[in-house]
Design brief:
By secondary structure, the chain is mainly α. It is built from seven helices and no strands. The termini are far apart.
Length: 180
């Protein structure tokens, strides 16, 4: 009887190790939802509301959270704000009550808002023919969010207008030189 019990415990531990390894592989592949689903399988093996089950949930949740934070922060480091923003939304759906994820999502939203505000200021400056102010706002905007298409398009227009303005000034100076 003792041998049968030992064999069952050993078999269950082997299954848990296998399930854990599958979940870690999914994490390495950045398939967070799959990792969570795989690790949920272990709950059936552990059964009930045991200390072992709570430990398992803490361990796997901790690993998932760390992976989410690392991936989201990687998007932020690359200044890929839209991807980071949608990633935080996905992560918050899986871990709705996590302060760290909420703070990261809030930080990303603030960066997007700041970039949009700077882009708006640049548009206003461009409309008022204040090309230096428009360029300054665009440089700040694109430093925060380099992939903001509206800012990239406006930057091209501002640079073209600045080039035309420079050519106009050059011709005017040359023209003044001939007049004297």
């Amino acid at each position: 009887l003792q041998q049968k019990i030992k064999d069952r415990v050993s078999q269950r531990e082997g299954q848990l190790v296998e399930v854990f390894a599958k979940g870690q592989k999914a994490l390495q592949e950045q398939n967070f939802k799959k990792a969570q689903e795989i690790w949920a399988e272990a709950k059936q093996l552990l059964g009930g509301d045991s200390v072992e089950l709570r430990d398992w949930n803490e361990k796997t949740s901790s690993l998932l959270m760390e992976a989410f934070l690392n991936q989201g922060n990687e998007y932020l480091a690359k200044k890929d704000l839209m991807r980071a923003n949608s990633f935080w939304a996905e992560a918050k759906a899986l871990f709705p009550e996590t302060d760290e994820l909420q703070e990261a999502a809030d930080q990303t939203a603030q960066l997007i808002q700041r970039a949009n505000t700077l882009c708006f200021q640049a548009k206003e400056a461009y409309r008022n023919f204040d090309l230096a102010k428009a360029q300054e706002s665009l440089l700040s905007c694109l430093a925060i969010y380099p992939e903001l298409q509206e800012a990239k398009d406006l930057d091209k227009a501002v640079l073209a207008a600045m080039a035309k303005e420079g050519e106009y000034r050059r011709l005017r100076i040359e023209g003044d030189g001939y007049a004297h």
